[in-house]
Design goal:
Length: 228
């Protein structure tokens, strides 16, 4: 009788372990889905509010004008372009081609309507919410990322940086850092960008502040050495 009780307890214990493991895996998948996919929904819902608050700001135009003068890019990737806040600058400087990529279709729709894109080129604007990382290596002369990388999860940021560094030799970023005096939140992270870019062969060649925001310009090491 005792042997039978021990046998049943052992079976029940194994079944409990298996069911707990299955439940944990299911919960883990639900957790990942809950905190990754909704980003697209969140930014789409927030598109109008974000555009209303920041869509016409030009506080960083002076710095970006200097960057454009320094690099003289023909092809630019505006990574996380939103509703096209920087598009008037590209038009003014007559950049030949700009790819505006954003996760929110609504934000891209605002940009298309507001700036009547491609009605009076240059630039030639291409708007997309698709994966742009399949483009050829060094496809762009410059990548601009304004308050975008800070929203990427810590476990994914390295992969994104790696892909960006394959698309251009020059990358300008203005992302959350210690100078912002802001705390990390669910969709807002402080990453070590200098370390991340350095491990993919990029040096920090320029750095400055716009009010309490810190901007950085990274260049591929071999490219920057040849320039000097």
């Amino acid at each position: 009788m005792n042997k039978m009780k021990y046998f049943y307890r052992k079976i029940i214990g194994k079944l409990t372990f298996i069911t707990d493991s299955i439940f944990f895996k299911f919960y883990k998948k639900c957790f990942i889905f809950r905190f990754s996919y909704p980003q697209k929904i969140y930014w789409t819902k927030m598109a109008l509010n974000i555009d209303k608050e920041w869509g016409t700001m030009k506080h960083d135009y002076a710095i970006l004008e200097k960057i454009l003068l320094f690099i003289k890019p023909k092809y630019i990737l505006d990574f996380g372009c939103g509703s096209g806040r920087l598009f008037p600058l590209y038009q003014e400087k007559r950049i030949e081609e700009v790819v505006g990529q954003d996760i929110s279709k609504k934000a891209l729709a605002i940009a298309k309507i507001r700036y009547q894109l491609n009605s009076t080129p240059p630039p030639i604007f291409t708007l997309t919410n698709k994966d742009i990382f399949k483009l050829p290596t060094n496809h762009f002369d410059l990548i601009i990322s304004n308050r975008v990388l800070q929203h990427i999860f810590p476990n994914k940021i390295e992969k994104v940086i790696n892909k960006l560094t394959k698309l251009s030799d020059k990358i300008y970023i203005n992302e959350m850092s210690d100078s912002d005096y802001s705390n990390k939140t669910f969709y807002l992270f402080k990453h070590n960008y200098e370390k991340l870019f350095n491990q993919y062969g990029f040096d920090l060649i320029q750095k400055g502040k716009i009010e309490n925001q810190t901007w950085c310009l990274f260049s591929r090491k071999s490219f920057y050495k040849n320039e000097r």
